[in-house]
Amino acid sequence: MKRKKTALVIAVLLLLVSAGIYFYYGFLFKEARNIASETPDFTITATKLLSDYDADPQKADALYLNKTVEITGTVTKQTDSVITLENTVFCLFAQKPNKQSINNKITVKGKCIGYDELFQEVKLDQCTLTNPNN
């Protein structure tokens, strides 16, 4: 009788441990999103995105935050891994993008991470150029 109880307790413990491992690796460590391969939720201009945030930041966050967006705009600044469109959309690239000419019109796809009130910029992360030949 004592052996049956011990075997039952061990079986329950093994089941709990395996369920814990499944939860830990199955739900907590999901693979990161690959924004470059995602279809954009929105395709808009840089000025339209900023005007939406200027008009109603909460509504714009509800629409764009953590969504994949494709933005078209004119390059106004470029550093190593950042391209700024229309002086208002800050696009952070995971890999250094090709050099873009100032005043060149480009299209960028990335994940919207919100509006920076201090710099008055909309921020995009994990960006890629969707028209890299420009």
TrEMBL record:
Listed InterPro entries: Protein_unknown_function_OB (IPR024422)
Highest taxon of source: Bacteria
A Pfam family: tRNA_anti-like
Full protein name: tRNA_anti-like
Source species of the chain: Flavobacterium hungaricum
Native organism taxonomy: Bacteria, Pseudomonadati, Bacteroidota, Flavobacteriia, Flavobacteriales
